[in-house]
Amino acid sequence: MQKQKIKSNSHKAAYELIENKFPILEKEKNLKKIKLKKKEIISDRIDDIKLAIGLIKEIIEFYSLKESKKYIAGKNVIYTIIKNAWNGVSVLNPQTKEKNIYLDYKNYFPVETKEYIKGEKHKYRYSCFTCDNLIPNLNIEMNFLNATGFDTNRKPSHVWNFNNDIAICPICKLVYSCVPAGFTYVYDRGIFVNDNHDVQKFVRFVQ
Description:
- It is a single chain.
- By secondary structure, the chain is mainly α.
- It is built from 8 helices and 4 strands; from the N terminus they run ααααααββαββα.
- The longest helix is centred in the N-terminal third of the chain and has 19 residues, at 46-64.
- The two termini are 22 Å apart.
């Protein structure tokens, strides 16, 4: 791992959620390059080298903790994988107030889906653009998906007669949020291998 990532904003946000308050930023600050001066040999700086190795071991141990992996690796997945498929909402909303990425995702996708399932759908007047399920309004658009949806408020000409009817239900929104799990990303381009004749094969491929 690159040293500068230790003090990146995404990592700093993850540190706040980790119960083990290891002084990781202080350790990073004390971890400096060891440069040999003229006429110096490695043995002349052995104490500095041992100190640096000790700091590196402490940092590695911190990053190896289960809780550290949960939040720091989670942040990395968001910005290296998920962001390739969708953006601007939930954990990728720059204005989100929820610091816990797992709670943020849960509240934005699964919770709304559960509420929708319990709703009285026979009273709804609109239909989901994807699955045709009845929906109460046209609030959930597809513009959070990269290169797929569009902002109907800014681009009304994209829909028939300038009247927007493109909206999806919370169930489809939840399913679309899982799109990154089915792709392997290489240089920010997704590759999908269609080996999903059954759920077991698909899950094995994703893992």
